[in-house]
Amino acid sequence: MATLSLSGVRKQFGTTPVLHGIDLDVADGEMIVVVGASGCGKSTLLRIVAGLETASAGSVRIDGRDVTGLEPADRDIAMVFQNYALYPHMTVFENMAYGLKIRGMKLPDIRRRVDEAAQMLEIGPLLDRKPRQLSGGQRQRVAMGRAVVREPKLFLFDEPLSNLDAKLRVQMRAEIRRLQKRLGVTSLFVTHDQVEAMTLGDRLVVMHQGRAAQVASPMEVWGRPADTYVAGFIGSPAMNFLAATLLEGGGAAMLRAGPVIGFARAVSAAAAGTAVTLGIRPEHVEPAEGGLPLAIDLVEPLGSETVIHGTLPGGEVLTARLPIPASGIGATMPLRLPPEAFHVFEGASGRRLD
Amino acid sequence: MQRKTIFPQKGLPYLLLAPQLAITAVFFFWPAGQAVWYAFLRQDAFGIRTQFVGFENFADLFADPYYLQAIWTTVFFSVSVTVLSMSVALLLAALADREIRAAGLYRTLLIWPYAIAPAIAAVLWLFLFHPSIGLLGRGLNAMGVAWDYRLNDGQAMLVVILASAWKQVSYNFIFFLAGLQAIPRAVLEAAAIDGARPIRRFWTVVFPLLSPTAFFLLVVNIVYAFFDTFGIIDALTKGGPGKATETLIYRAYLDGRVNLDLGMSAAQSVVLMIMVIGLTIVQFRFIERRVHY
After folding, report:
1. Domain with A103 in it: what CATH number?
2. What PANTHER family does the database record attribute to this sequence (chain A) (predicted)?
3. Which of A334, B121, B168, B210 has the most CB atoms around its CB within 10 Å?
């Protein structure tokens, strides 16, 4: 158990910058999920923490000790890989015992620890099998077991669930969360899946083009996204964005088509006339008499709710998630956009305005 | 994955197989059959009188101390060539597997020796080790080492081993490199995170995963050293000095072509044939079982 702190971590491959200075402080026992689209640098960040890549600048400290220049072996970490990376020629027991054996642990102690971990992960009966004789889910457990037996300072997860089928993924997700809480090991979990990110993390790091766009708790990322990228990335269906111009006093903005939208709280950080982007989540849009008319062009019934896509009079595309069945394609539905549900972002930079 | 193709005419499949079968029959079964038949005959040097002698040729062969010596020479030679060429190839492949500058060029150059004919390879080594015209040979003599592989048994053996192993390194290198590159990166990274240093990682993870390749190469190299090194030995030492580099294949050639004792030569060919069949069986049996770890 330990803290992890990154300061100014940069990475360049040749002349291509991949990470532009990442700062992050992880508390003891905390589970941090690094989430972002592919190519955002999240895996590179994890590999730098593991010591599999060297940072071009900046430092990595584990438990206060600077490990920036150390080999992976000297960092006392364990990692679960996307494709499990089990040793194909060793049995499950040998796979789990490998790291302990290298550390010179005595065989009875190794056996005790492996048995303990195997019991916890319910892979006890598989200890004598080779990886090729296991299913995807079982391999995943063995990979977890190999990390757990080491009792490392830090767990690193590199998209460990992406090779599993949907049902197993949900199950393993819950198990990883439970296991991490129980062992209290500081963890860094990389994923591109926002549901995984929301459910697993104590805090999220939303990465965008080599930068940490926002570091916050899942609910804060959802409720107060730092910019339009984060706002659009977290939440499904994605947040609606409407271009508008801020009015005098910052209490309202005018959409292109004319309607004025009032805010629950005035925006003070920008002058009148500033181009802004208004964000509203599809689930916050309500059907209401006399609201903005939405010309529906697609209806997706999901059973308990309905997702409708359409265009507003000004030509803006809008998606709404309604708890009622909606009328068909081609119809027009009046919708209310509640003022308290709006997020206001600066038009040019995309940054949140308060 | 076995798929059966049904031919409408019964004759077509046989017709398609015919060229392959004809080649095998003319160039393998016929000479092999003749060798087996000759092994039971004794013929005078001019081929005038031929006599059936049963297993007498074989009995004579294994009673001949020189033949037994040739077996030991072959075993020593083959083991040395195999160990040397495989270990050098593995080292080179492990080095080439890293991210190094101009890796492509390096790999291409390493593959070249395989394209060189055995006799030319031998001449190349001759130019290196010849006591009076060879670069290294003259150097050694100048340094006071009494170097003449044409007179010294051990030196002769050393030179044929070096030349034969050198020729085979490229082949082994290609297979080892392919084997190394087939090992998933993540597995090696997992071992690194588990705390294994490069040397330990090599012996506990890389080498076991290479073992099917290594075993395949072991058999191929033994077969090579047994049978395909005739050209090198003939060009460098002609089996000498004395009988120091006379391997089984060279002895079979000497008896048949030089001493014109066809029966003895044929008997030796049969012994060699049995050996190569044995090696092939071992290889297939073992590889079938071990190809998946």
Report:
1. 3.40.50.300
2. MALTODEXTRIN IMPORT ATP-BINDING PROTEIN MSMX, SN-GLYCEROL-3-PHOSPHATE IMPORT ATP-BINDING PROTEIN UGPC
3. B168
DSSP, res A227 = B
**C-alpha A318: how far from chain center:** 25
Residues A201 and A215 in one domain: yes
Q: Is the CB of A87 less than 8 angstroms away from the CB of B197?
A: no
Domain membership of residue A351 (yes or no) is no
Could you give the angle at the alpha carbon of A258 between the alpha carbons of A255 and A262, nearest 5°? 55
Confidence (pTM)? 0.77
A89 touches chain B (CB under 8 A): yes
User: What is the C-alpha separation between B227 and B222, in angstroms, rounded?
Assistant: 9
CB contact under 8 A, B193 and A78: yes
Question: Could you say which of A71, A81, A130 has the minimum Cβ distance to residue B190?
Answer: A81
Q: What is the CATH number of the domain that holds B225?
A: 1.10.3720.10
The residue segments making up the domain with residue A261 are 237-346
pLDDT of B33-87, one tens digit each?
888 888 788 777 777 777 777 777 787 778 788 888 888 888 899 999 999 999 9
A223 and A241 share a domain?
Answer: no
Task: Please report, in angstroms and rounded to a whole number, the separation of the first and last CA atoms in chain B.
Answer: 20
Residue B23 lies in a domain: no
Write the residue in A73, A82, A89 that is nearest to B209 by C-beta.
A89
CB-based contact (8 Å) between A153 and chain B?
Answer: no
* Number of domains making up chain B: 1
Q: Do A309 and A188 reside in the same domain of the chain?
A: no
Residue A19 and residue A161 share a domain: yes
Distance CA A51, CA A38 (A): 21
* B275 assigned to some structural domain: yes
Residue B234 has pLDDT above 80, yes or no: yes
Identify which of A79, A83, A88 has the shortest CB distance to residue B193: A79
The radius of gyration of chain A from alpha carbons, rounded to an integer in Å, stands at 24
Query: How confident is residue A229, by pLDDT bands cut at 50, 70 and 90?
Result: very high
